[in-house]
Amino acid sequence: MQRSENIQVALRFRPLNVRETLRKDPEIWEISENSTYLKPSWSEKLQDSRKISNSKAYTYNYCFSSQETNEDVYTSTSRKVVEASLQGYNGTIIAYGQTGSGKTYTMMGSDGAELDSALNTSHSINDISIEKHEIPKAKGIVILALEDLLKLSKDNTNKSCYLSCSYLEIYNEQIFDLLADKEKITDTLILQEEKGQGFYIRGLSEHVLNSVSDVEKLIKKGEFNRHYAATAMNHHSSRSHTIFRVYVTSVSINKGSYDIGENITTESLLNFVDLAGAERVNSLQEAINPLETSVRFMASRSPRASPRLRSSSTRRSIDTFVNEGKHINVSLFYLCQVISKLSEKHQMPETHIPYRNSSLTKILSTSLGGNALTCIICTATSTLSQVELTLSTLRFGGIAGSIQNVVKANIHSDKTNELLLMYQKDIEELRQRLNAYENESKSVVVETEGIDATINTEGNDIRKILEERIKMITGILFSKKLSENEPQAKELWSEGAGDLIVDTKLVGSKKLNESLNTSADFAMTRMKEMHKEKDKQQQYIEELEQKIQYLTDSKNNLTNDLKKSLQICQTETAKRVSYKQQLTATEIQVEEKGKIINSVVENKDKEIQALKDRVNLVEKFSGLDKLNNDELERMERMYFHGLDMVKNTRFQMKYFKEIESLKSIIDKGSKNQENIMREL
Ligand SMILES: Nc1ncnc2c1ncn2[C@@H]1O[C@H](COP(=O)(O)OP(=O)(O)O)[C@@H](O)[C@H]1O
Ligand SMILES: [Mg+2]
């Protein structure tokens, strides 16, 4: 499940923009398969003008010309990273390049890029109008990846997949939540380290993704917040890094498809990183001395700005710029440093990787040299005017390509998950049974309705027969009366009355009554039977309803149990986090205490040394060891007194010498004076 993977590097040239076309800025780079090199004519010219020193070909995993689309780039570079996330592999896609080279276009699509350029030129949210631009709409890698993830998880019936996302911005080393509610957009988040698990961002909001429209809405919200915050805090969007994170959890209930068990949960994190413009990390000098560089850069970008910085607003904006520049230079510099150190690691495994120097490298620590499939897309411009910045990007990509990450899938098969899966399975089974019962009870209702209808029709038929018979009896009675009074009339009626009358005449009225009674009894029995059947069905329905009620209750109980286990899980996780925090606090305290103890021990050592010195001194005097404490102390006092005396004597001697020399000078002077006087 563990494998070594080199960071994949892709180079992408963007099409020329209107300004470059109008200026007739020539395209000087050519692509052949997965390499790029200067067109031969330009290679010579540039070497002559010493703009570049060599004309080698730069080779990457992929090279994309300006004709290739975001879909092409996504399919070749990122799809496999996205697919692997469903098996528990972390993944990171990074866009690196100078401002305006197409990083945001590649990551967030044409809308994101247009919003960026609109803000970078107008500085006002009101001026942003995506519709005004004529550039055809293109989806970015983030949307393409999520479309794929949603489709893959829908198609896979053996797995339940849960997707959620966060969107953050790093500006001046501070982290902002781009999906936070409006009033919290300007709050900064804290980056915290969890031992053995890298860094996590405290308070970063997470949002569930169920459809592509969810993704689009959240990206729009993030972009809007980014520009809103940029306006509110006077940020410049090309100087910030953004990271769109997707958390992928897949729960597999597919028996036997993995070697470690049947119920498997995989968790992975996908980072889509849109870095700030790389133009300010051209050289080590720039990164080390950002202030000078930023001012130089500012002066070169806006020739009208006075180098003397007369107005206070200009001073303010330059101060801000310097501050921003510093953070960008420093964070991108540290990114480059991390990448260059990582590229040396296979030769020097002990090399220290300075992840902790900036927020960006802390967040990306698991993606660079860690447990993630990583792909860096270097975006560049192929024009002559940008040759130096393009070369810097090409070199960066070259170094990054040699880094190896050791990736392994984040697979769990712990009891909690199994329990959750069991509950899920139970609920699913109960749901199916409930559906089956519901369907069955429906069919029973239909059946009883059928019986009711039968009872009705049969009842109607019996009623008809009875009515017929009543008619007949009336007829017989009538014909009897007639035959008693008018024999012809009897003949006439009997013709119309049909066989029954003849029959009646033959059998007599007693038999007829019997026959009628039997029919009525039969009808009644049938009716009773029907009603009994109906009652039985009714009872059956009631039983079913009870069963449904029981199942619904069981389902509710299970759901409650599930909720409770989830709550327990959450409380346990919260407890774990708080224990960890306590542990960290205790570790800090222990460290502090250790320092104090060390310094106390040091002082004690010094004291012991002083005592030893004294003992040594005393031991030098033979016979002193026989003295008691008081005598020793007296001796010590005498010793120090003696020392003082020696010191004084030394001083006195010094003064005596000086007095002697002064005396001799005075003697000499007076002798000279005597001689002069004598000569006179
Ligand atoms: N491959 C591309 N095809 C078409 N237009 C592009 C492409 N790449 C960049 N652009 C355009 O170039 C401009 C700058 O791109 P953008 O992504 O904002 O640069 P970056 O994020 O590197 O500063 C935008 O107007 C964008 O629409
Ligand atoms: Mg951008």
Descriptive labels:
680 residues, alpha+beta, Kinesin, twelve-stranded mixed beta sheet, elongated, binds adenosine-5'-diphosphate, binds magnesium ion
In words, what does this structure look like?
The chain has 680 residues and is of the alpha+beta class. It has three domains: 2-413, Kinesin; 418-596; 625-679. Helix content is 60%, strand content 15%. Strands 2, 6, 7, 8, 9, 10, 11, 12, 13, 14, 15 and 17 form a twelve-stranded mixed sheet that branches. It has a three-stranded antiparallel sheet with strand order 3-4-5. Helix 12 runs antiparallel to helix 15 (509-620). It is elongated, with a radius of gyration of 49 Å. It starts with a strand and ends with a helix. Residues 122-133, 256-261, 283-311, 313-318 and 486-508 have low confidence and may be disordered. It binds adenosine-5'-diphosphate and magnesium ion. The site of magnesium ion (MG) has 5 residues, from helix 4. Magnesium ion is lined by residues 103-104, 116, 238, 274.
Shape label: elongated
Mean pLDDT: 76
Number of domains as seen in the coordinates: 3
Pick out the low-confidence regions: 122-133, 256-261, 283-311, 313-318, 486-508
Beta-strand portion reads 5-15%
Count helical runs.
16
C-alpha Rg (nearest Å): 49 Å
Task: Give the cofactors and ligands.
Answer: adenosine-5'-diphosphate, magnesium ion
Indicate the percent of residues in helices.
55-70%
**Terminal CA distance:** 119 Å
Fourth-level CATH superfamily of the largest domain = Kinesin motor domain
Strands, total number: 17
Keywords: ATP-binding, Coiled coil, Motor protein, Nucleotide-binding
Family: Belongs to the TRAFAC class myosin-kinesin ATPase superfamily. Kinesin family.
Binding site for ATP: 97-104
Protein name: Kinesin motor domain-containing protein
